[in-house]
Each structure stands twice: as structure tokens, then as C-alpha cells.
Write a structure and sequence with these properties.
By secondary structure, the protein is an alpha/beta fold. It folds into 2 domains: about 10-210, YjeF N-terminal domain (Rossmann fold, 3-Layer(aba) Sandwich); about 230-480, 3-Layer(aba) Sandwich (UDP-N-acetylmuramoyl-L-alanine:D-glutamate ligase). Helix content is about 40%, strand content about 15%. The protein is built from 19 helices and 19 strands. Helix 2 (about 60-70) runs parallel beside helix 3 and helix 9 (about 245-255) packs across helix 16 (about 410-425). It is elongated and about 80 Å long. The chain binds ligand LZDS7PUF and potassium ion. The site of potassium ion has 11 residues, from strand 5 and strand 6.
Length: about 500
């Protein structure tokens, strides 16, 4: 087994790899890690006065090895050991291989250093950073962090204490979720991930659950010469009487994302009939429409009032349809959560999430999304600058491929339309949601560049065909270019 290139390693994963190394293997891994840190630093900075601040665990051990290499290459290096390694531990053995100057008190060295390396805590952070340690690191002018800036929870991106921003963070094997989750993301600077030579036994310990959302994590439906509109998939959208724009935007997005046929049912039927000519508009009761087995995928929520949702959603659920619930269908509190059981995907922003799940919204976003997915039994797309896509089985993807240009009215309706089209094309719910979030982000990036930063929502839909082409170019698993981190 090898680790998928888009896996993100939680601290727990990283520690289970470490424990599978055995002592010799562990020493080799630390040697590889420290050497990688030194190489990444040498590639970015000229030799300068450097302080490596080492903690008591293997994060500190990486620091001692990095210090050794930098000194070998002629740098002026001292180690500040803020906590000694445990007696007779492997870390102590590795620390002894550093023969240079070591201090246990800062004595003004940090403030006077050109570069400070934060090797205090990484995966083993178990409680908040003390004020004393935080004060020491905050005096650094330029900081490079090993694994994560000390005080960052590698799993959730939460900060345990006051954390100093690094301009470079060097991690190992695969990046950590925190590198891509706010608030930690803003404190990591450039991310470098080093391959330190992976023994297969150690990798087998890892059950990947967190992924970076990039093409290659999913495959888009393949266009075939024999395609017809029903094989491409039918999307049905519950029509709104008043907020008709939301429905039309979602319908256009679904049509531009490969759906063979998009139908709107009910609401202001006359208006929909006079809008885009490529739509089919139905004026039949929902109970009739659900009998058509070709109409499996339904989008329920954009533009809908509570009363409209109540008229549509229970019937769709009892007919066993594949449902994306968004906007109006994401009501308030436990009753609304109960009413959603049976849908396949929900796409809340943080406000909607808080209304639905209450106190769960106070948990770190990745954990909140995962628990909500388990609670509803549906994929949860928790929208934001670091959108999280959580499946009920515990898989989570973190999306980075996005643009602030997406923060515009109607953007969520566009996303809902894309997810619906990919569901109709036969993709499983988590993969369809991940792919849709990426395509939506890509269209936002392209629209921002084409229209100068503030594109209107209609521009997103126009970019979806090209977004699809770019995704297809990158989804070949061997072609992981343009990832949001450098590889060493
Ligand atoms: N597989 C990999 O990715 C590799 C990672 N490497 C590096 O290893 C570290 C993880 O090392 P670990 O020893 O597990 O953890 P830490 O170095 O982060 O620190 C653990 C010790 O720190 C104490 N601790 C934790 N939090 C605090 C705190 N707030 N204040 C004081 N002390 C703290 C902790 O004490 P406990 O009481 O909780 O036991 C431990 O003593 C990873 O980050 C990488 O840098 C490998 O080198 C290569 C393979
Ligand atoms: K660190």
C-alpha cells in the first residue's frame, strides 16, 4: 500500500506511523526529517545567525538534527533547549548528536537572531502553550516551524495558546489538516512537505480519513459517444414562487455542469417558462413527478419558503429520491435536522450550520462537519474559505481551490446546481460534492481573473465548462501539479 498523494496526516496518524518504525527506523525518520528541514531552509535563506528552539519530544529531535546540518554547511547556529528530552529516551540519544552550543535560557538570543526555528511542539502537543514559551517564540523576527507552528493543533487547525506566525512550515510524509484549516493556515506561511522514506509497514498503520480536495480524489463522469440526455442525467429542482432567481441560477449551473436535462417543478411556473429556453418547466403535483424513475436527483431549497419546503421535501424523501437540501431546506434546530434524514447532501454555510446544529458549531469546523454528517446520515458541505466536505463514514476533504470572488449572492445556488448535476451523472454523494466544490472554486478563480476581481454570479456558470476541462487535465493520479504546498 502507498499513501494517496492527497492524504492529509493527522497527528494521530503521524504518531502511529512513528510507533510502527521501531527504534532504528525511528532514528532514520528523524534524521530524514531534520535533514529535510535544513535543506528547505538552505534553499530559501542565506547563511545567517540562527537559533533552533527545541522541545522535549521528536519535534525537538528534528530540530537538533537540522541544527547539526546547518552548522555543517557553515551557518552560525545555537540551540535553545526549552525543555530537556526525557532521560534515556531516543530523543536524548538524537539530541546528543548535536555538539554545538546549547542554552536553556534565552538571554536575548532570539530577538538578536536572523532566523529562529520552532522545534518545540508538533504532533505531540497535548495542552496549551505556556505564556513563557509563547513569549519566547514571539520575539523571533523570522520564524520557520517544524511540522506546525508550536501551539497549533495539527488535526483541527485550532490554536492552543498564543501562536507566532511562521513564514515557512516544513512537514513530513503528507501535510497536516491544520496547514489548510483556519485559523492555523494563516500562521503556517509557505508549506513544504518532505518525503522521508516511507517503510511500507508503517504506512499500513494509517487509515486515511482526511484529504485535500483536488482532482485525483474523484473522477468526473466520462463523456461517451453514445451519451443521450438521460444517460447524462436529469436534475429536478423544486420551484420557488417568490425567490425565483435562486432557482434559475441553480438550474443554469446544473445545465453548465453536464446535466443532460434540467427541470423545474412548480413555483412561479409562468416566469420559469419565459426564462431560459433550455429548461423544462412542470406544472404537475410533486406526487406525480416523483413517479418518473428517470427523475432520481432533486435539488430542494434554493429560494424556497418554509411552507414550500414542507410541501416538497417529505414527499421526495419518502419516494427514496437522491436529494440535495440547501438554503430554505436548512431550517432551525433539532426538528429541521430530523426532517433532513434521508437526504444525500446538505450544503450549509456557517450561519445555517449554527441554526441547524446549535452548540456543535462551536467545535472545530472539521470535527463539527464530521459529526453533523454522522448525525444526519448525509454528506455535509460546510462552506467557507476552507470548505469542508464530510461524509457520514468519517471521510473529510478540505478545499483550498477557491477565491474570495465566490462570496457573492447566488454563489451557493450555483454550487448546489453543480453538485446536483454530478449526482445525476452517477457520482457518489461525497465525490460529487468534492468535485463540485473544486469546479465552483475554479470557476471563481477564473471569473475573478477575467472580470477583475468582483464578478457577478452569472460569470461563475459561464466558467464551468473550462473548469471541467482543467479538472480533467489534473485528475490523472500521476499529475499532481499546482498543489497548495511544495514537495521536497
Ligand atoms: N511520521 C511523521 O510525520 C514524523 C514526525 N516526526 C516529528 O515527530 C513529532 C512528534 O513527536 P512527539 O514526540 O510525538 O511530539 P512533540 O515533539 O510534539 O512533543 C511531545 C512532548 O511535548 C510535551 N508537551 C506537549 N504539549 C505540551 C505543552 N503545551 N507544554 C509542555 N509540554 C508539552 C509532551 O508531554 P506529555 O506530558 O503530553 O507527554 C511530550 O513530552 C512531529 O511533530 C514531527 O516533528 C519525526 O521526527 C519524523 C516522522
Ligand atoms: K513546531
Amino acid at each position: 500500500m502507498t499513501l494517496h498523494p492527497l492524504v492529509l496526516l493527522s497527528p494521530h496518524d503521524s504518531q502511529s506511523i512513528d510507533s510502527a518504525f521501531g527504534e532504528d527506523g525511528h532514528v532514520r525518520a528523524v534524521e530524514g526529517a531534520g535533514w529535510a528541514v535544513a535543506r528547505a531552509i538552505r534553499a530559501r535563506y542565506a547563511p545567517c545567525k540562527t537559533v533552533v528552539v527545541c522541545g522535549p519530544g521528536f519535534n525537538g529531535a528534528d530540530g537538533y538534527v537540522a541544527a547539526r546540518w546547518l552548522e555543517v554547511w557553515g551557518w552560525s547556529v545555537v540551540v535553545l533547549a526549552v525543555a530537556a528530552p526525557k532521560k534515556d529516551s531516543l530523543v536524548e540519544v538524537i539530541a546528543r548528536s548535536w555538539r554545538g552550543r546549547t542554552f536553556s535560557e534565552d538571554g536575548g538570543r532570539i530577538a538578536n537572531a536572523d532566523l529562529v526555528v520552532d522545534a518545540v511542539f508538533g504532533a505531540g502537543l497535548s495542552r496549551p502553550l505556556s505564556d513563557g514559551l509563547s513569549h519566547i517564540l514571539r520575539q523571533a523576527n523570522r520564524l520557520v516551524a517544524i511540522d506546525v507552528p508550536s501551539g497549533v493543533c495539527g488535526e483541527t487547525g485550532r490554536l492552543l495558546g498564543s501562536v507566532k506566525k511562521a513564514e515557512l512550515t516544513i512537514s513530513f510524509i503528507r501535510p497536516r489538516p491544520a496547514h489548510f484549516l483556519e485559523p492555523a493556515k494563516a500562521l503556517c506561511g509557505e508549506i513544504v512537505c518532505a518525503d522521508i522514506g516511507l517503510p511500507a509497514d508503517a504506512v499500513n498503520e494509517v487509515k486515511p480519513r482526511v484529504f485535500l480536495n483536488e482532482p485525483g480524489l474523484w473522477l468526473l463522469p466520462v463523456a461517451d459517444r453514445g451519451d443521450h440526455k438521460y444517460s447524462r442525467g436529469v436534475v429536478s429542482i423544486c420551484g420557488a414562487d417568490k425567490m425565483t432567481g435562486a432557482v434559475r441560477i441553480a438550474a443554469q449551473a446544473a445545465r453548465s455542469s453536464g446535466a443532460g436535462l434540467v427541470r423545474i417543478l412548480g413555483g412561479d411556473v409562468a416566469l420559469y417558462r419565459h426564462s431560459e429556453p433550455g429548461l423544462i418547466v412542470d406544472d404537475v403535483p410533486i406526487g406525480e413527478a416523483v413517479k418518473d424513475s428517470r427523475r432520481q436527483v432533486w435539488l430542494c431549497g434554493p429560494g424556497l419558503s418554509n411552507a414550500e419546503v414542507e410541501a416538497y421535501l417529505p414527499q421526495l424523501i419518502s419516494a427514496g429520491k437522491t436529494i440535495l437540501a440547501d438554503a430554505g431546506a436548512l431550517g432551525t434546530g433539532a426538528e429541521a435536522v430530523e426532517a433532513l434524514r434521508g437526504v444525500s447532501v446538505i450544503t450549509p454555510h456557517m450561519g445555517e450550520f449554527r441554526r441547524l446544529f446549535g452548540a456543535l458549531a462551536e467545535s472545530p469546523r472539521i470535527e463539527a462537519a464530521r459529526q453533523a454528517a454522522q448525525c444526519v446520515g448525509a454528506v455535509v458541505v460546510l462552506k467557507g474559505s476552507d470548505t469542508i466536505i464530510a461524509a457520514p463514514d468519517g471521510r473529510v476533504a478540505i478545499n483550498q481551490h477557491a477565491s474570495p470572488a465566490l462570496a457573492t449572492a447566488g454563489s451557493g445556488d450555483t454550487l448546489a446546481g453543480i453538485v446536483s448535476a454530478l449526482l445525476a451523472g452517477g457520482m457518489p454523494a461525497w465525490e460529487a460534492s468534492c468535485a463540485a466544490v473544486w469546479l465552483h472554486g475554479d470557476a471563481g478563480i477564473a471569473a475573478a481573473s477575467e472580470y477583475g476581481g468582483w464578478p457577478v454570479v452569472e460569470a461563475l456558470e459561464k466558467g464551468l465548462g473550462r473548469a471541467r476541462q482543467r479538472a480533467e487535465k489534473h485528475q490523472n493520479a500521476k499529475n499532481y501539479k499546482n498543489l497548495p504546498f511544495a514537495r521536497l
